[in-house]
Amino acid sequence: MFNKILVANRGEIALRVIRACRELGINSLAVYSEADEQSLHTHAANEAICIGPAPSDQSYLKRDRILSAAEIANVDAIHPGYGFLSENAEFAEQCETCGIKFIGPKANAIRLMGDKATARETVKKSKVPTVPGSDGPIENENEALNVAQKIGFPVIIKAVAGGGGKGMRVAHNAVAFAKEFTTARNEAEKAFGNGAVYIEKFIEEPRHIEVQIMADSYGNVVHLGERDCSVQRRHQKVIEEAPSPFATSSMRDAMGKAAVNAARAVKYENAGTVEFLVDKNGNFYFIEMNTRIQVEHPVTEEITGLDLVQLQILIASGEKLPFKQSDIKFSKHALECRICAEDPERNFMPSAGMVDFFHMPGGRGVRVDSHVYSGYRIPPNYDSMIGKLIVVADNREKAIAKMNRALGECEIRGIKSNVEFLRKITNDPYFQSGDVTTKFIEDFFERNKNRQLKE
Ligand code: MV4
Q1: At the N or C end, where does the chain have fewer CB atoms within 10 A?
Q2: pLDDT at residue 166, rounded to an integer
Q3: 292, 338, 367, 423: which is the annotated catalytic residue?
Q4: What pLDDT score was predicted for residue 165?
Q5: Which atom of ligand 1 is nearest to the CA of 165?
Q6: Interior CA angle at 394 toward 255 and 359, to 5°?
Q7: Which residues on adjacent β-strands are paired with residue 89?
Q8: Residues 170 and 222 reside in one and the same domain
Q9: 143 and 232 share a domain?
Q10: How is the beta sheet containing 169-171 ordered, strand by strand?
């Protein structure tokens, strides 16, 4: 087992990894930017090294500085968390070259899944259902139009280097297609330095359901069930839950098997998430694989009783998965709300600054993963998520009631937060019914606008 792990991240996930290390008896090294000297991760770790100024590209994204810190402190492994360098294949490779274990998949698997067209083609060969579309990237407009006409409109044009919703365009007919194709290519070139795009049939009002997988370095792969992340705003998840209120046990089984096959297709190792779009008839289609631990991993932990971050560390250190698929039992219902420093009344504008007072709920079945405390100053340089509120209860209805109660106990002063907005969602009858697609928040605003007009 490792003696010391460098945590190459900040905020709640850095703290989450440090806590896992401590429970396993492993020393932790925090790296921090000048803006994060007073951040909890800096203080919770056994050691801490400053790696540069506040902007991420001068600190948390500086591979050479992080590797220097790793060498100076003599760490055995690096946990990248999510975001930053977590899906950077070159960084994973550099770690291995330096004799430091990267806690995550091999660089090759990151690379294959990072190219979204290659990912599609690779899993398609392994019996994983994909959305009807082009075979790989498409260069030429005529060829693209042929594919679009073959699969039928509407179609969606996606950047090969994209993911998370960036650089996507929808075309509803052949006339619009020419324009959208060119725009998508130009946007992709600008955003990623790679103009390559591919085409898929556009699935209307899908659910976003993803499957957690875990794989060891001996070829054992299991799935840990699904998470429903349909409640999103501008491609940012807002509420996640497990199990999905839409998934039947046969869907769960089939998606689980497909996710395991997707992981096997790239000889995947460590924790990963296979994303599917699910249409109204319950057909599911692979769209992407995320090769990291995800923000919403706690809902899976709460319904399986497993510690995913500890498992990541055990697997990286060369241990076998301590269970097989049939040992994994799902029970209860978990919900997660992402608490963000933002102002819902000003179009969710980020709200950095001094947190004068910060009180989080507690009680049975309530978990808070946050790096924030009273008197903490939120730097303006990073993501606006300041914590996650996770609840678990016997069923979905009780979990929603618990979440509503817990949100009511949150007290955050000095900055704006989305807590009241989250609470309104938990009170929404459509959310409560579980009939929720990726269009939910848009519809939610529409309904509430009408309500205000009527009153
Ligand atoms: C789609 C789609 C409809 N059809 N692909 C958005 C994020 C990226 N990971 C994939 N996304 C989508 N891909 C096809 N073929 C609709 C979306 C999409 C979406 C997906 C998940 C959650 C929220 C979303 C919001 C808008 C669009």
Answers
A1: C
A2: 75
A3: 292
A4: 74
A5: 7
A6: 105
A7: none
A8: no
A9: no
A10: 169-171, 155-159, 197-201
The per-residue pLDDT for range 435-450, each reduced to its tens digit, is 999 999 999 999 998 7
Question: Would you call 425 helix, strand, or coil by DSSP?
Answer: helix
Confirm whether 234 is a catalytic residue: no
Percentage, residues of the chain above pLDDT 90: 96
> Which atom number of ligand 1 is nearest to the Cα of residue 131?
15
Q: Closest ligand 1 atom to the C-alpha of 275?
A: 9
The pair of structure tokens assigned to 80 is: 């990248």
Whether 138 shows a pLDDT value over 70: the answer reads: yes
- Ligand 1 pocket check: which of 120, 130, 155, 156 to mutate, most ligand atoms within 8 Å of Cβ? 156
State the greatest distance between any 2 C-alpha atoms of the chain, in Å, as a whole number. Answer: 65
pLDDT tops 80 at residue 167 = no
How far is Cα 401 from Cα 391, in angstroms, rounded to an integer? 10
Are 15 and 66 in the same domain? Answer: yes
Cα torsion at 266, 270, 271, 275 (round to 10°)?
Answer: 0
Range of the domain at 414: 207-454
Residue 77 structure tokens: 């492994």
Distance CA 9, CA 14 (A): 5
Please give the distance, rounded to the nearest whole angstrom, from the Cα atom of residue 360 to the centre of ligand 1: 33
Residue 455, pLDDT above cutoff 80: no
What spacing in Å lies between the alpha carbon of 280 and ligand 1's midpoint?
A: 14
pLDDT, position 15: 98
Residue type, 224: L
Give me the CATH number covering residue 189.
Answer: 3.30.1490.20
Q: Reply yes or no on whether the pLDDT at 453 is more than 60.
A: no
For helices 89-97 and 63-73, the axis angle rounded to 10 degrees is: 30
Q: Confidence band (pLDDT; 50, 70, 90) for 5?
A: very high
Residue 19 inside a domain? The answer is: yes
Run of H or E including 445: helix 440-454
**Cβ 83 vs Cβ 9: under 8 Å:** yes
Count of residues in the chain = 455
Q: Is 349 helix (H, G, I), strand (E, B) or coil?
A: strand
Q: Please compute the mean of the pLDDT values over residues 417-434 and round it to a whole number.
A: 98
Q: Which residues line ligand 1 (CB under 6 A)?
A: 131, 156, 163-165, 200-203, 206, 208, 232, 235, 277, 287-288, 438
**Inter-residue contact 360 to 389 (CB < 8 Å):** yes
To 10 degrees, what angle do helices 107-114 and 116-124 make?
100
Flag whether pLDDT at 175 surpasses 90: yes
Q: What are phi and psi of 366, to 5 degrees?
A: -115, 130
